């Protein structure tokens, strides 16, 4: 059997379906998890980066080798410009929409990470500076990518295996 693919994990509720398939996953697999709201927020203006800058940032993070990739955001960001992105989509970075609630993207990504850990993934690259991902660092190698230093939680910087700042 093959390892779970993004197409097999379309929604949080389908995680149980994938887990029940009993896929054998070799150790050493890496997941790329992108909190699009955190990663595409401009700390200088308090708004969103332009669509062109969003694609530029995402292309830089997508050079990470990963066996699984997923971007998560609330509906408003999709409506703003991600629907027109040449980067976000099934072939490059699959997108899942989370509820429009505080920390919803973090929780969804952590639930996906929990499942991936249960099927043998041992490393993650997270494109987010949110401290919520510290709990993942306790269970796996965690590389963090942030757009700039201001977007990085001090706690996350301390517990991550590596940190890469794009700007």
Please provide a written account of the structure.
With 167 residues, this protein is α/β, with parallel strands linked by helices. The chain has a domain at 27-100 and 126-165. The protein has seven helices and six strands; from the N terminus they run αβααβαβαβαβαβ. It has helices at 15-20, 36-39, 51-61, 75-80, 104-118, 134-137, 154-159, and strands spanning 29-35, 68-73, 95-97, 121-127, 141-146, 162-165. It has a six-stranded parallel sheet with strand order 3-2-1-4-5-6. α4 links the parallel β2 and β3. The longest helix has 15 residues, at 104-118. The model is unreliable at 1-26 (pLDDT under 50).
Quick structural gist:
The protein has seven helices and six strands; from the N terminus they run αβααβαβαβαβαβ. It has helices spanning 15-20, 36-39, 51-61, 75-80, 104-118, 134-137, 154-159; strands spanning 29-35, 68-73, 95-97, 121-127, 141-146, 162-165.
List keywords for this structure.
167 residues; alpha/beta; six-stranded parallel beta sheet; 7 helices; 6 strands; 31% helix; 20% strand; globular; disordered N terminus
Overall strand count: 6
Any low-confidence stretches, pLDDT <50, length ≥5?
1-26
General form = globular
Number of helices: 7
Give helix and strand order, one letter per element, not per position: HEHHEHEHEHEHE
Report the sheet-strand fraction: 15-25%
Query: Numbering strands along the chain, what is their spatial order in the largest sheet?
Result: 3-2-1-4-5-6
Overall mean pLDDT score? 79
Radius of gyration: 15 Å
Please estimate the helix content.
25-40%
| Cα-to-Cα separation, first versus last residue | 41 Å
Return the structural class: alpha/beta
Main β-sheet, in a few words?
A: 6 strands, parallel
């Amino acid at each position: 059997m093959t390892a779970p693919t993004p197409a097999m994990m379309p929604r949080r509720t389908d995680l149980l379906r994938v887990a029940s398939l009993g896929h054998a996953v070799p150790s050493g697999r890496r997941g790329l998890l992108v909190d699009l709201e955190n990663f595409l927020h401009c700390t200088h203006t308090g708004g969103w980066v332009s669509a062109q800058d969003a694609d530029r940032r995402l292309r830089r993070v997508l050079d990470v080798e990963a066996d699984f990739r997923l971007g998560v955001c609330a509906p408003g960001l999709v409506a703003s410009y991600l629907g027109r992105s040449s980067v976000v989509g099934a072939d490059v970075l699959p997108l899942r929409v989370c509820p429009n609630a505080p920390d919803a993207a973090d929780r969804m990504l952590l639930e996906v990470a929990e499942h991936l850990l249960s099927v043998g993934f041992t490393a993650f690259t997270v494109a987010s500076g949110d401290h919520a991902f510290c709990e993942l660092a306790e269970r796996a190698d965690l590389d963090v990518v942030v757009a700039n230093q201001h977007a990085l939680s001090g706690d996350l910087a301390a517990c991550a295996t590596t940190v890469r700042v794009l700007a």
